Amino acid sequence: xxxxxxxxxxxxxxxxxxxxxxxxxxxxxxxxxxxxxxxxxxxxxxxxxxxxxxxxxxxxxxxxxxxxxxxxxxxxxxxxxxxxxxxxxxxxxxxxxxxxxxxxxxxxxxxxxxxxxxxxxxxxxxxxxxxxxxxxxxxxxxxxxxxxxxxxxxxxxxxxxxxxxxxxxxxxxxxxxxxxxxxxxxxxxxxxxxxxxxxxxxxxxxxxxxxxxxxxxxxxxxxxxxxxxxxxxxxxxxxxxxxxxxxxxxxxxxxxxxxxxxxxxxxxxxxxxxxxxxxxxxxxxxxxxxxxxxxxxxxxxxxxxxxxxxxxxxxxxxxxxxxxxxxxxxxxxxxxxxxxxxxxxxxxxxxxxxxxxxxxxxxxxxxxxxxxxxxxxxxxxxxxxxxxxxxxxxxxxxxxxxxxxxxxxxxxxxxxxxxxxxxxxxxxxxxxxxxxxxxxxxxxxxxxxxxxxxxxxxxxxxxxxx
Length: 466
Ligand code: FES
Ligand SMILES: [Fe+2]
Hints:
- The strands form 4 sheets. Strands 13, 14, 15, 16, 17, 18, 19, 20 and 22 form a 9-stranded antiparallel beta sheet that branches. The protein has a 7-stranded antiparallel beta sheet with strand order 3-12-11-6-5-4-7, with no helix packed on it. It has a 3-stranded antiparallel beta sheet with strand order 1-2-21, with no helix packed on it.
- The chain has 17 helices and 22 strands.
- By secondary structure, it is an alpha+beta fold.
- The structure holds FE2/S2 (inorganic) cluster and fe (ii) ion.
- Residues 96, 98-101, 116, 118-121 line the site of FE2/S2 (inorganic) cluster.
């Protein structure tokens, strides 16, 4: 087995002789459409990305008590994410070590032990074998049950988000997230009491390759002003400048392929208030648009938890939407509403591969622990109006991701066309950008830098270089 996997990992061509490295043109900054639908590329992704990267599998607040579990996937592997009796979290392959049945069938629940329905093998919450029916009749004395536990992934939690990784030799989550952590802190770590999920995650299937959304979510501001132009009509923006609300965001990419778009919130406040250069005080701006997830009545806790510099950053260039490589995303912003002032929205999501031309969109919405019912309802209204299956943003994108996937299957498409990432800003920090907010900062007009960074990191792994 191990020799086979070693040979696979060294393979540098697809079965028709195409060099994997030829699917990216690093000089012209172009990508072959083939990667969006080829089953063989998809299998390589399972082996070279999803078995070796840190993947989002949930939020700590989904499983607060011992025995609480949820079932998720990493790549295409089903997993059980469960809280042990000692409070630690395990991520276990949801495949019985006896003959492969799924041990847990429910999406969520609480259990003392995990029991497979097929022949009744029982596992402890740490995945070890606890016992089985007719043990003495079935298995001779001395059978080594210790090595028959459920396959375990490494688990680490950052900002409440649970990540898992199958690779015992992969760098820590801390290293993997690197400079991205500072942006995550300002999105998710706003209060000493932390955030909690608002209901179960929203899940729906999209008929598109998982990369159509993963590569674009933290970088493609370009499409926002066109595909989402109706959103632009609702978001406070300068009507004399159609590029106002989306094309002047500052974008950041980090070394492991993560990215974030920091929106110009000062502009929004200027338009909302007509204040021009006389910006309201930081306190007044916080009252006007409390950072998403934080109800107005909890602002005093936020002010104690974050420094003035951080609060100033959160109110001027808040990290808005971004990608966590390979298939995660974050979103922290104010939504236009059907009526009334903009509504807060705080979320993370995954785009889970479900075949070369399908992914499962899974979106968690968060609010401050202890937030009022009224605030929770406001966040739900804001979320369902704009994001997810019924929201008009994903409704817009849902028209393009499947079409990209479908078109990429064609013979002429693969022979004559490419995805182009020609437009680069380079590194440019806007005036006053805090040193603490690291990564590769691309200020000015929004171009393709973070997406091109994503593709380079993707191909390093697909080619087996990382
Ligand atoms: S497959 Fe689970 S007990 Fe047999
Ligand atoms: Fe979009």
